[in-house]
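Aim 2, interim progress. The first record below pairs a target sequence with its structure tokens.
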Amino acid sequence: MVNRTSKTLLLALAAVSSGANAFKFMSNWQAPKILSEDQKVKAAAAEERFGDKKLCVITGCSSGLGRETVKNLVASGDYHVIGAVRDQDKMEAVAEIDGFDMDNFHIMDLELNSFASVHAFCDELKEYQLGKPLDRLICNAGVYQPSLPHAKWSVDGHEQTMQINFLSHFLMISRLIDDMKEAPDPRVIMVGSVTGNDNTVGGGGVYPIADLKQLDGFKAGFENPVAMADGYGFIGAKAYKDSKLCLMMMSNFLHSKFNKSHGITFSSIYPGCIAETPLFREKRAWFRKYFPIFMKYITGGFVGVEEAGQRLFQVAHDPRCSKSGVYWSWNGGPREGRGAAALEKGGQISGGGGAGGGWDSIYVNDQSDKVNNLELCVELFQTATKITDAQWPSAKTFTSPCPTLKVISAVSTNMIAREELKRMDDRPGFNEDGSVVQLTKRKKAALVADKVIVQGVLGNTVGRVGRVAGRLLLGRIPDTAKNGSFQEEKPLDDVVAPISDETAGSKYIDVIDEGDKSILEDEIFDQVFSNGNKDDGSSEEREWKIGEQEEEKELASV
């Protein structure tokens, strides 16, 4: 019995000394759920459909990198994969050719040129899940239109490259992350590019350079005819690079905003230059012929589509890749002395994104100053949210489940709110534009109620006794605590707001003026204290108290 008591005491002391983190292991504790008959049927159906496999969504998987990634996901036997594509017939043919296990591969329609299609996909996905949370979201789909002399527009009137590569994925993430937080190891993976990272030769040495500038195009609404995020003239190659920069910036921002609250891993990757991918289908024939040769034997940055698919699969599957807020790459950087080795290996040499190195060559790559521009990341999130009309969930961080904290919080919440309202009423402060903050109707009503009930009824009964007892028990405040100010406090009337004629005014409409407030106080006073007998005196002349008991008698009664 003594040993058990000692162990309990030690655990309690360890919990207290560790603070809120000591209770974090309790954060997922839940009361046993009592399922209805419909819920039991749904749970059984989900078990039959998915078994113990993780649920993964990947966009753009009918060719290239996405196709090879699906091969690895399905072949692993650990995933039930949903291929989100715009051409379902083509996807069905690819699945048959590649021999996908159709029990673990499902095709859904998704046209990233349309926000309505993104919403429809998310709705269909929710029905298909049968309550099972989503474990992986791989934002892979992308278009590259470098030869266009002018922009092409989406259904929603936005430049296609930016909407397909970034904006539609941005909207999709906003719809799905609240569901993903229920998964044990949820990950959102965005396929970036070296071209969006200008601290490299591929990203910073070849014009045009990825650069969002001040996001003037997004701030202007990014609608036809505004074709670029920076608001300037259209260049197809720059639109692609800008979209990849947006993806990498947003991966970092979402990590900062939602990783702790939702437990989701956000990361971006560069799998290497897949010079023979259909991504270059809109380039001229000579480029498609000679670019792979150049990347294999000159730069060493070439990687085959099969190996690139293995790399994207690795970030989705490898336990080491549960690290959030990073940019994954392979092989460490281009190396000199390729020559004969490159010829002997058919261009398959190690390099920055180049082929070779295997599973263990993965590393966290450095990102450019543009990617890490926190202020611009915030503006990107805000403007993209407005363009897509995305509805993001609240990001609430972990709160200790300590029972004592919950009780104290419940008792003190209303008191803290009342005291803060009184502080704001005495010294309201200023808005960003310099105008004086005016309390809303609800807050003013709360102040009136506080004056009547707390200061009037309780303040002159229980509160009055408490104040007397407090003075006797705690003593008076020392003079040294009250003295020592180098200036006398000025009257509030002397405070001048730093405003101009254009910015004068308030964020809120002052719906209760001082006259209305006085009338409201009179009515409440008469009803509470006068038992229906009206008092002709004004509220300023009334004493908000009950009776004239002496402090000593009140203390004795306590």
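The second target in this work package is listed in the same format:
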Amino acid sequence: PSNRGGGGGGGARRVYTKGASEVVLELCSRIAQPGGEATAMDAGARARFDEAIGKMADEGLRTLTVAYREIAAGEEEPKDLEEDLILLAVLGLEDPVRPEVPGAIRACKEAGIVVRMVTGDNARTAAAIAKKCGILGDEIEEGQVMTGAQFRERVVRPDDEINMEEFDKIWMDLRVLARSSPLDKLTLVTGIQQSKISKPQTVAVTGDGTNDAPALKRADVGFAMGKAGTQVAKNAADIIVLDDNFASIVQAVKWGRCVYDNICKFLQFQLTVNITAIVVACVGSAVLTQSPLTAIQMLWVNLIMDSFASLALATEDPTRSLLFRKPYPRDRGVLSQTMIKNMVLHAAWQLVILGGLIFMVGDICIPSTDASPQVCTPRALSKFVGFYGSQPFNVPTGRPLGFDLAVTAASGACPMAFDLEDKNTWKRVKGVVVPNRHPEYCKSHKGGEESATQHYTIVFNVFVFLQVFNEVNARKIHNELNMFQGIMYNNMFLIVLFGTIIVQILLVQIPGLNTAFGCTDLDVYQWLVCIGLGFTSIPINFLIHFLPYEWISLGSWAGGLDEAAIDEVLETTEEADKTDVEMTAQPQPTMVHVRNPDGTEAS
């Protein structure tokens, strides 16, 4: 740019020019001296200035050259003012790197995010700043620093299309793109998104100028600066960084991963409950002619797995450990192999326990009209469970009588009714005759839709406690071994967890309330057994941790995208970019973050 101002007298004028040092220096033919005169610039003087500019650039200073041209009074203004200039000064301007930026760059590297700098500075200045930030190491490797002219010459065809074959040779190593134009930034973002040499990439761009708008809109995630950014850039971006600080972008990455992981935790828990509840309800209705869980019990279960679980699992705060893992590939499904393994195996274990409780617990009796019924029937595996009055549950069956009669024979295999003459019907304990079968056995609740039984109350209770303890397991979705890590820092999770247990106790034990939920009260021993069976989810999760999951095949059913779908989105975006804001201004320093440069990472 040229600045015109009055200079001298008698109508004489002076034109000032400032700009990039290497550009303006080439336009100068003389050097201003302290006395006001100008001397010719020879090759030696030009070399000294080039050396001084290079030294300042190596120190991370942005160099600016100021020159002027005298136009005598009455002289016609030349067509090209910026030639035959007189060098006035070479300035070195320092924009100090914020103290938190190098640490933020290191955090990005640990998180698998590759940081690239696209700037209008010259290559030496850009490289020096990149070293201070940690983008480049002490030794610059081949291909890490490139100028915009070199970049365009290699990857842009005469028809302005990207030469992807050449582009793929460059972008994996590229870290600094200096003296770049707005089109260079847009080309870099577009090329990385379309590259096929690794998994589909996710690109994030920061910018503050109007010229950054096309790249911000083209990127998968656009970050605009809240203080220095123009309104056009803010409108084109997805996220506005209010404090213009790169460290805030790292916080955004951490929170983004936290929110995504929390959603996955909730899905893992909810789908496990769904699998178990659906199988229990469907199998129960088909085999027993009625579901072991009543409608109002299912509503309570839905409340646990929807509202309460979302509060407990979706309120986990982000931790530093989120930045120690690689990003998810762009085409990765919402359900990972680890999540599917956990859901299927935990649901299978829950079904084994609930199936055993439903079909193997509860003694069978054919009630008669006699005051002292004489006929009992065994049920399958009766010898492993015992009769009424035996351990572990001391309950008669809650299953429909028709089902029990259909699968068992009235063979008198249950203990016979008490008969003092028949020693097989009683035993002596400390000199006292104790009947093997309680005389009121067949007068107790038989079960069915009309009555609440301890048998089905135990089934419901164990089902809920299986979900309560599995909620702890659902906090980890990356096959971590310690599911309790960090649990004490999530107050909401603890409130929901213990609140669910307290409400469950009230639903079962309080008269009237338990009747509404189709339950009856349990004794202390039965409560301990229910809680113990529910707690088995914890050691089972420990065993599941060591099982392989590579055999699980994922696809679109798991919430993933195929490459064709991604390409379609990119083509649509590319068409929209053709009508974007016209790029006119010089680019501001910016950072480009691209994922998965080697197929697993992201940048």
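The CA atoms of residues 60 and 129 lie 5 Å apart. This observation will shape the mutagenesis plan for the next reporting period.
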